Automatic annotation (TrEMBL), chains A, B, C, D:
Listed InterPro entries: Aldolase_class_II_sugar_metab, Aldolase_II/adducin_N, Aldolase_II/adducin_N_sf
Family of this protein: Belongs to the aldolase class II family. AraD/FucA subfamily.
Cofactor(s) needed by this chain: Zn(2+)
Protein's UniProt name: L-ribulose-5-phosphate 4-epimerase
EC numbers, comma separated: 5.1.3.4
GO-annotated cellular components: cytosol
Source organism: Petrimonas mucosa
GO molecular function terms attached to this record: aldehyde-lyase activity; L-ribulose-phosphate 4-epimerase activity; metal ion binding
Domain Class II aldolase/adducin N-terminal residue range list: 7-197
Keywords on record: Carbohydrate metabolism, Isomerase, Metal-binding, Zinc
Length: 229, 229, 229, 229
């Protein structure tokens, strides 16, 4: 039914591990088949080296299992909220990499400090607000998606220009037009988080001309882009 | 007599090394056979690559060697105190991994800052108080066990919900229902310590809604747990 | 035409990657053939493992492609400004390594704190000033070269004695008499940046006798040098 | 003449590299044959992978080459001063490892914060005072040895109980009864420096009961030692 997606979701999950972004089973990636309205996602709590493409679970946008013998990732409701709210995205990655997670635990946005950041994120990487008791005790994973969407809506942020977020006290989610791009953005975010950590602990009185950030983002992504072949 | 335990204790010690938690011979792991009242532990100061399962030393709960030609780890009396005080645990690991040890040397608890921490530890990872001269000059390794137990007793902490501790100016001990789980908790603790280090040096004014911690711990360990298959 | 240079530029780019200085495609190295007035440089945005020596692009000092089917690195105009301003240099490397970039993002010079630094850089590693909106929106990559040259000119710095620079909010450039030496200086700069980071976060009230720096630089590079065979 | 020493000095130098303590050619190790009054040391500035045991240079205690076609390490005069002042030591290592060097650049002693430190160093790892212009411009490498000796003499430190030192703005030297032990102490010092770095940046208001340090040092090295077999 969605065999190609199962392979790309499997590969993306394995790439997350190979990139050093996942400890134990702490990560998951998914893709959406927009035509069929189906989401293909890693099963919950399965060891990566025991997993094969056929183990990917297929759910509809209400989270009902359509195909697969394993329970989907417990974070599936978060993915579903994001797919509904951000119609341009085709894949999502969630992980607990060391530096991005440390910013999420610190509870602050990752400031835009350099051109490597600006090449992929057109602004600070936002951190969500603290969730309320009610949200946590209710439909927690769905509410996690909701606070992400709230942050983008209230901040007038474009999810394609800012392809990732930190969930406070939890960790990062990244996305892209495909699940492969979501995982690429995961690796970029970790590298950006790491360099920002070192910069921030060296000198908290930094500054960056916002024109420089716009220049770098636009030379890679703007209408007149000229980076690459 | 306890050949299966020797193999699992040997494997757990080797896993500690493979996980990057041990420098030189600075670590040890043990298991208890509750039925026989015997503890199986790594011998003292032996190089890992020279060691085989038969080298594991077997002692009774008073520390008398029951089987084995090598002296047990010099930390054996600490293990024995913990096995007596915490009847639910089946294995213990001790090591000097970089980040967990740095918190032990700093002399502070590891604050609960994120969900990866909350998934395995239902609260801060406690640090013991400074030992007195009398405790150090007396039966030092046994007293080390005693200050750990004191911390759990006085803090009303459940050793299965908080499966590890920092001994001040020394390093971490972790435990579990088996020695394999003790070593798994060792790796989790090091990762948690590392991310908390980065968070703490980024922003010391952090906060975490305690409901979020309870939610994450319970979705993995509570009666209604739903993580994994 | 310049086949030898293509091979050495290709090798230098691959060495940048092997040295851990490059994430994804975030780096480039070039050489100049002074006799012919040609610069040989990595193509823009090409994956390293798909690249061969023949893919190196050859441009003249005005940036016109003389040989090669691929667009040169988007940073080519920066390289050209440096080759014109610093006639003694034969190769340039640009990269976004973790520690050097973090100092660039922090916007400060790397202070001369130790003899490993002094062995290769006869003073602080300078950081350029913030670029103006006009410079950024104009011929940005050429202006990046200009602010580097301005820093060396205004600071009376000798580019052979200080074979590298940090571009504020961007990252390092290094150079040398050949492209191989530029890449060697890249690796030295990253190591120097890393140790300076740790020193700076340990104790910001450091000092170094400038005679010690002069001694170390001169025992490797002075007229009476006596290090090595 | 001293073929066995050449082999052990060669092996110790290679072990320094394998342990990750040396970048490029920034390190050297030597041994002394006390009976013959000869010192066997790595040649200056030679790449490790081009080096063989026969390349080790043999000098007498005045630094005159007795055997070998290559110039000895430029740090040879420092080694000679230490061999003369510390008659119990048989080998010396010098290197610029990341964390030990960062403490040397910060210009402070490494505080005794934990038992892994106390197992091998019976106190803080001392840092030498700043050298004077006269010392630096004079017989610099010999004076480097002299400030080390001065620190041990004035501080009433026993070089066997404190088998290493930080030379301010330069880097560490370690030693031992053999060159192999000197290199082992090098690896211990780097690990101790690393953990102390993390502790120090976490919480500068640390404390350690000195009885604990004495206990750990003596259980490994005292007359009643009981660690190991």
């Amino acid at each position: 039914m969605v065999e190609d997606y199962k392979l790309s979701v499997y590969s993306a999950n394995m790439e997350l591990v190979k990139s050093g972004l996942v400890t134990f089973t702490w990560g998951n990636a998914s893709a959406i088949d927009r035509a069929k309205g189906l989401v293909i996602i890693k099963p919950s709590g399965v060891a990566y080296d025991m997993m094969s493409p056929e183990d990917m679970t297929v759910v509809d946008l209400e989270g009902r299992i359509v195909e697969g013998r394993l329970k989907p990732s417990s974070d599936t409701p978060t993915h579903l909220v994001l797919y509904k709210a951000f119609p341009e995205i085709g894949g999502i990655a969630h992980f607990h990499s060391e530096f991005a997670t440390s910013w999420a635990q610190a509870g602050t946005d990752i400031p835009l400090l350099g051109t490597t950041h600006a090449d992929y994120f057109a602004g600070d990487v936002p951190c969500t607000r603290e969730m309320t008791d009610k949200e946590i005790r209710g439909d927690y994973e769905r509410e996690t998606g909701n606070v992400i969407v709230e942050r983008f809506t209230s901040g007038l942020l474009d999810p394609l220009q800012i392809p990732g977020v930190l969930v406070k006290n939890h960790g990062p989610f990244t996305w892209g037009e495909s699940v492969a791009e979501a995982v690429f953005h995961a690796a970029v975010l970790e590298q950006v988080s790491k360099i920002a950590y070192f910069s921030h602990t060296l000198n908290r009185h930094y500054s960056m001309n916002s024109s420089l950030a716009e220049k770098h983002y636009s030379r890679k992504h703007g209408t007149g882009k000229y980076y690459g072949q």
